[in-house]
Amino acid sequence: MKLPLLLKARQTKYAAYVTLYMAVVLAVITVANVLGDRYNKTYDSTANKRYSLSDQTAKIVKGLKAPATIYYYDRPTGFKQAQDTLDQYVNLSPKVRVEYVDLEKNPLAAREAGVKSLGTAIVQIGTRKEEAKSLTEEGITGAFIRDLKSNTRTVCFVTGSGEHQVDETGGDGLSRFKSLLEKDGYESKSIDLLMKAEIPSDCTVVAVAGPKGDYQQPEVDAIKKYVEDGGRALFLLNPPLKMGREEIADNEALSKLLEAWGVTPDKDLILDLNPIGQLAGLGYQDALVTRYDSHQIVNEMKGTATAFPYSRSLEIKNADKTTVDKLFESSASSLATEKLDTPRINANDPKNKKGPLTMAAAGTYRTGKENTQGRFVVVGSSDWVANGFIPFNGNRDLAMNAINWLASDEELISIRPKDRDDRRITMTRAQLNWLGITSLGILPLAVVLAGVTVWWRRR
Prior knowledge:
Elements: H1 2-38, H2 55-62, E1 68-74, H3 79-92, E2 96-102, H4 108-113, E3 120-125, E4 128-131, H5 137-148, E5 153-159, H6 175-183, E6 186-192, E7 205-209, H7 217-228, E8 232-236, H8 252-261, E9 263-265, E10 269-272, H9 275-279, E11 286-289, E12 306-309, E13 314-316, E14 322-329, E15 334-337, E16 353-354, E17 358-366, E18 373-379, H10 395-406, H11 429-458
Parallel strand pairs: 1-2, 5-6, 5-7, 7-8, 8-18
Antiparallel strand pairs: 1-3, 3-4, 9-13, 10-15, 11-12, 14-17, 15-16, 17-18
C-alpha cells in the first residue's frame, strides 16, 4: 500500500510543478505582450545606429511646444513599412501622433490634402502643413523644420570673382551643400555685388565661398555695412596660391575688413604631416581636424573628424566692437609655409610656422542696437564644402552648424543622419569557390568524421 501511495504523491507533486511552471510562463508571456503593446521600445545594437533617429531629430521633436500630427497616405499594404519609421517619432514625444489614411476606403482624402502619389507623409504642427520629401528621417525631419520655421531663410552666395557656384554639380561646385541647406529649410541663391553693391534684404546669411579674384572696395563696403547692421556672413578664404594657371588673388580689401573685426588671414599654406590623415586617404595639403574648441558651432562635433584641403592659418583677437572665438586648429604635427609659388616644400625650413595653427573662427559684432548683433564665421579653406569633399566624415555637419549659428537657428545644430555603412563583403571568384568548398564540403565532412570517431570509441 505504501508504494502506490508514494508514486501517487510523486505524480501529484510533478503535476503541480508542471502546472505552476506553465502558469508562470503564460503570465510572463501575457505581461510581455501587454507591455509590448503599451510601450513601443526598441534597442539599436548596430555599430552606427542605423535604425535610430539622429540627435538632431530628437532635439527638434522633444522640443515641440505644440502637438504634431503625421498623416501618411497609402494603401493598407504600405502602412507596415511606414510604421517602422513613423513610430520612432511617436516614441520621442507624447506630442507626436500618426494617422494612417487608407486611400482605398477614402480615395478623396488625397485630393483634399493635395497628395499626388502613394506613400506620402504630411507633417502638421498647428495650422501649418509640410509634405515630407521622402519617407526617410531626413525627409520627415525636414518637414518638421519647415513647419517650425514660418519665415523664409535664404543663404546668398556672392559671385563674380571666381567663387564656387551653388548650382554647379562638378567636384568644385556647391550643389551638395545646396541640397543640405534645403533639407534644413533654407533657400539659396547667387548675388553679384559688382552689379549692385548692396546685400538684398531677403538674405539671412551671405556666403563668400572661395573667391579667386580681388573684391572691389564697393563690394567689401557692402559686406561691411551688412554685418555691422546686424547681418550674418560666412567667409571661406583659400590661401593666395601662385601656382598653375589659376592663381588666387591676395584679396587685400576683404582681408583688411576681417582684420578690423579681429581675424587676420595669413598668407601661408598649412601642410599636415599627421600619418593618420594618410590612412584616411588625405594628402599633406589636407589638414585633418579631430579636436574642437568650445563654441555652439562645434560643441556637437566631439569625436568627429573633418578635413580641409589647401588651408591657410588665421590670427584672431577681440576688437573694439567684436568678440572672436577660435573654433578649431590644425594638429601639432602640422606646419605652415609662406612659399606659395612652388610645390617644392622643405618641411625642415626654420621659417615654417609650427602647428597647431588656428584654422577657423566665429565672431559677433556689437551693433549698439538692442537684441541685434552681427555674426561672422571665417574658415581658411573653401574646398571642404565643395562637392568633392563635403561628404568626408563631419564636413557637412560643420558646414550646416555654421549656417545654423549664423542664422540664429541654434536649435538645429547637431549631427545629421549619417549615410548607412556599406558592410558588404567583396570576394574574388577564387575566394567564393574556396568558401563553397569549406562550408559545403570540408566542414560537414569534419563533423561526420568526428561523429564516427566518437561512435567507434564508445563501441
